[in-house]
Amino acid sequence: MRKLFSMVFLAATACEAGAPPARPEDLRGPRLTQALPRPAMSLVRDDGQPLDFRADTKGTLTFLFFGYTNCPDVCPLHMANLAGALRSLPAAQAGKVRVVFVTTDPERDTPERLRSWLDGIDSSFIGARGPAPVIDAAQRSLGMMAASRDPQVPGSAGYTVSHGAHLWAFTPDDSAHVVYPMGIQRDDLATDIPLLLRIWPAR
Q: 38 vs 63, 104, 146, 159, 190, CA distance in Å?
C-alpha cells in the first residue's frame, strides 16, 4: 500500500512540475465530429522525388492544403499564417511539423513554379503534384468538393480554380481531428500546434 501511494505521489508531482495536460477543448480550431484518416495519395514532390502522402508523413503532425500558386487570396493567406505560426514556435517544436501543399492547377504549377512560390513563404514547405483522379479522390475522402477550373472571363489574363479553403491537420496518430477554415489567425495556429503534438501522439 505504501509503495502504491508513493507511485501515485510521484506521478502527481511529475504532472504538476511539467506542462499542464493538453485537452482537445483547449484547441482554437474547429473539431471534427469524427476523425478522418490520413488520405492515401501517390504524388511527386517539387524536387522530382515520389511522395506517398500516407506512408511518408506517418506518425507526424502534417498540415495538408489543396490549392494553387495563382490563387489571389485564400492560398497565400493560409500559407503565410501557417508559416508565421511556425516561426513563432521554438525551433525544436516547429521542426516536428510538416506542411504539404498539393496543387489543384498542375497546368501552371510546374515543379519550378511550386518551389519558387513556396520558397517565398517557407522553404520547408513541400509542394506536390499528382494525377487529377488521385487528388480528386483524396479531397472527396475528406468530404471536400474536388477542385475545378472556373470558366475564363473574356479579356482576362488567366483563369481561377475553385477549391476548398480547408487546412487539414493530421496529427501523429495519423488522423485529422481538427480542420482550419479560411479566416483562422496565425496566433490560433501557434497556440494549437503544441497541443496537436501532445493530445494525439503516434500510436
A: 11, 19, 17, 31, 22
Amino acid identity for residue 127 in this structure: G
- Helix (H), strand (E) at residue 181: none
Q: Name every residue whose Cβ is closer than 8 Å to that of residue 115 and which is 6 or more positions away in sequence.
A: 46, 47, 127
Question: What is the model's pTM?
Answer: 0.88
- Cβ-based neighbours of 187, under 8 Å, separated by 6 or more: 85
Contact call for residues 98 and 63 (beta carbons, < 8 A): yes
- pLDDT tens digits for range 42-69: 999 999 999 999 999 999 999 999 999 9
The single residue listed with the C-alpha cell 497556440 is 191
pLDDT digits (tens, 9 = 90+) for 177-198: 999 999 999 999 999 999 999 9
One-letter amino acid at 27 equals L
Return the ∠ at Cα 80 (arms to 78 and 83), rounded to 5°: 110
Question: All domains of the chain, ordered by start, with CATH?
Answer: 40-150+159-199 (3.40.30.10)
194 neighbors 93 (Cβ within 8 angstroms): yes
**Distance separating alpha carbons of residues 183 and 45, to the nearest angstrom:** 28
